Amino acid sequence: MLETDAAKEKQSIELKQKQDKLKASSSVKEMQSFREKLPAFKMRTEFLKAVEENQVLVISGETGCGKTTQLPQYILEEGISSLRGAHYNIVCTQPRRISAISVAARIASERGESLGETVGYQIRLEALRSAQTRLLFCTTGVLLRQLVQDPDLTGVSHLVVDEIHERGMNEDFLLIILRDLLPRRPNMRLILMSATINADLFSKYFRNAPTIHIPGLTFPVSEFYLEDVLEKTHYEIQELDSFQGNSRQRRREQYSKKDPITELFEEVDIGSQYKNYSASTRLSLEAWSGSQLDLGLVEAAIEYICRHEREGAVLVFLTGWDEISKLLEQIKGNKLLGDQSKFLVLPLHGSMPTINQREIFDRPPPNKRKIVLATNIAESSITIDDVVYVVDCGKAKETSYDALNKLACLLPSWVSKASAHQRRGRAGRLQPGVCYRLYPKIIHDSMLQYQLPEILRTPLQELCLHIKSLQLGAVGSFLSKALQPPDPLAVENAIELLKTIGALDDKEELTPLGRHLCTLPVDPNIGKLLLMGCVFQCLSPALTIAAALAHRDPFVLPIDRKREADAAKRSFAGDSCSDHIALAKAFEGYKEAKCNRNERAFCWEYFLSPVTLRMMEDMRDQFLNLLSDIGFVDKSRGVSAYNQYSHDMEMVSAILCAGLYPNVVQCKRRGKRTAFFTKEVGKVDIHPASVNAGVHLFPLPYMVYSERVKTTSIYVRDSTNISDYALLLFGGNLVASKNGEGIEMLRGYLHFSASKSVLDLIQKLRGELDKLLSK
Ligand code: ADP
Ligand code: MG
């Protein structure tokens, strides 16, 4: 004991000596003068005193005031200066990987050291930290997983939970755990940080914990709405065709139910509301459906800024990769913008594998205008100082969950007023700015004040699995302690699903399969697909399909060349009747093209997104590492040992069935056509983008699918035709129930007639499967 005390004392002294030495260097001095200008600096003493005196502290402050980069750093500096450095273990959570890295890197450079020394980061499968690290940035997910080994967070002296105003599911979940944990760790300090939104809510949740507000320092930002933008740019909005080439009326029907604001907009008589505007603007406003973003409009706004406004970076808010990469291409081909060497166009997206950080934060070279195309990650977690113009599409991709119909969708939807305000504020960091909103004022006026927390609008199975693995008791009663508890029906659905796929047993306890699934940071269904891929030696397609399901589909669907795109996708599917197999084949083709160094041409020819494919490659590697960590893949045997059946379509369909169950559709023959039914919602249709769309008859009686979406009717996306035997063998709970009732149930569902001996055999095989999965 004494020995470790002595070692700690020695380490504390060393930390101080190093810090003192670095402080004297000219680069750190320069950084220091930047830091002292940040609004957070004025509160340094007050903040440190409050941390000392209170177990929980809530901080709010305008984005960019220095919460993330300064406050944890103050704690660190103060600890080291007072020779307590070795006793400090400050952990700061970030909702996104990219911000964990970027902030850690920034702080290390402010301190004049390399990343991974005193300041480090850890994100899923990637870390840069050492024994010296005293301030660690990690994703909230990483901390949640660490709780499995260390439920009391004994190694942590100060925990800073950042961006809580976003109300992400992980953060809300962590707060429940922390509230229970605090009495067990009286010496630990908890600091909650939020943009200036709703700080009281959090303070109340932690027994009225004191709140410190950091006053902002922002310049005024003037704002324009769509009507003004149209007048300025003379842009005329075209009627956009959605995927089916629908009429406008049809499109309205499609979206109006999803989107009450659009409905409202359509009720307004645009002519009288906007009588001060020109005729073409009024027409354009009418054509503006509010359902899809017209990238031409975004481009026109950027073009206008570049031609008419004084210098300053432009920050464009879009909803996702699609739009970002399309717009990137579009801007590159824009002749009106003139000399391309005058622009630096940079994408910024939360799951970008490697970001060229410096370019995003740095001032661009003289005579170059920086244009950053971002998702809502630039709303509050990443601040780019030199932004003077914001172009805001007003939407963000958001999951929504309909517990009654068990329907989850990830769709662009209107952001809240709070978010729109945040986005606007990004333009006024260093000087007065301008915000161009690409939606009419009436839409803004009817936006929600705050966004609904994620825990209320997503399926909860991953969360439930997590609660189980942390042994936090019954899921329902645990979640009832949340800041805003989710709908009990949503909880029930999640538990039911976990039982159905065999992750939980009848008593709601984790099964061995469930325990494996906990260690895979993906949706339990995707996790099961991966495990089955290992066990049945068709790992490569399993990795590809899992990556696409967890990230996104690499097929792009250009509206004007839909036929060709469909044909390309079908050429991969062959006669498999499977979107998933088409995907796996497309990826193989891409890998091969890459070996021949013609992947660009390949992607172009087959309508594939190279960006998405690259991302999928990364994710495949990550999954492979995870599977090797939990012992399902023995890398020393070589990956080919796990790919013996990768080209056996029946085998691949079977493991897809295991992974996607209970997403099953029954194909019923109706004359010369096939009709599709699910147990949950009855009749459904195959999504028009599927290779199975328009096929009249299928060789096999069932389909498994990845997702159900509701537009004009209920569609199943990405489907694979499977046999009844695949369903009997791989569908549902692999934990064979004692008296065979599982099989009986399935049989009832399948209307399957087989002799007793066949059923017995199946039962036995399933027993064997179960053993394989619980090793
Ligand atoms: P907050 O968390 O309050 O939103 P931050 O601590 O993230 O504020 O940022 C404070 C300041 O530091 C901002 O002006 C921001 O532009 C700057 N900054 C943050 N990260 C970087 C970076 N990687 N490079 C350059 N400047 C940065
Ligand atoms: Mg921050």
Automatic annotation (TrEMBL):
Key word Disulfide bond present: no
Give the main EC class: hydrolase
The UniProt entry, under SMART domains, shows: DEXDc (SM00487), HA2 (SM00847), HELICc (SM00490)
The EC code for this enzyme is: 3.6.4.13
What does the entry list under GO cellular component? nucleus
Basic and acidic residues bias spans: 5-23
Named from the GO MF annotations, one term is: RNA helicase activity
The record's InterPro entries line, in alphabetical order, gives: DEAD-box_helicase_OB_fold, DEAD/DEAH_box_helicase_dom, DNA/RNA_helicase_DEAH_CS, HA2_WH, Helicase-assoc_dom, Helicase_ATP-bd, Helicase_C-like, P-loop_NTPase
* Catalysed transformations (reactions): ATP + H2O = ADP + phosphate + H(+)
Cite the PANTHER family for this sequence.
Answer: ATP-DEPENDENT DNA_RNA HELICASE DHX36 (PTHR18934:SF237), ATP-DEPENDENT RNA HELICASE (PTHR18934)
Q: What is this protein called?
A: RNA helicase
